[in-house]
Amino acid sequence: MRTEKYQEMGFTQLGKGKVQDRHGDIYYPKKARSPQQAIKLFCRECMGMDRRKKNKQENIEMVRDCTDPMCPLYDFRMGKNPFLRGHMTEERKKAASERMKLFHQAVKQSSGENEAAS
After folding, report:
1. Residues 71, 74: Cα–Cα separation, whole Å
2. Percent of the chain scoring above 70 in pLDDT
3. pLDDT tens digit string along 31-61?
4. Which of 77, 75, 7, 85 is nearest to 41 (CA)?
5. 5-15 residue pLDDT tens
6. 52/18 Cα distance (integer angstroms)
7. In the chain, what are the domain boundaries?
8. Contact, 19 vs 7, CB < 8 A?
9. Which residues of 62-101 are buried (b: 16+ CB within 10 A; e: fewer)?
10. Which site from 18, 58, 73, 91 is most exposed, i.e. has the minimal number of CB atoms within 10 Å?
């Protein structure tokens, strides 16, 4: 199915992830495996990433220098969700602390059982 799409767009598949356009330029198309990766790829292409080049550092700097704060992906462009914060209420901190204590007790008991079985 992907081959048919490339042909419709005027590309020729060369193998090993390479495709060639009508003008002879070779590209390395990528499919995102996660929403975070899709956002990074979109931002890099928006900022003029040349898929023919493999210089990742240059692409990262281009995304960092984005000048469009009105873009819906602007806050997410560096790979993090700024709206997820690690703030915990005192109640949640206590609950997490209790869970960790139970976990450590269970680990100690299982390691003691393993030593006794040896």
Report:
1. 5
2. 77
3. 777 888 788 878 887 887 766 666 667 767 7
4. 77
5. 767 777 777 77
6. 10
7. 1-30, 33-110
8. no
9. ebeeeeeeeeeeeebbeeeeeeeeeeeeeeeeeeeeeeee
10. 91
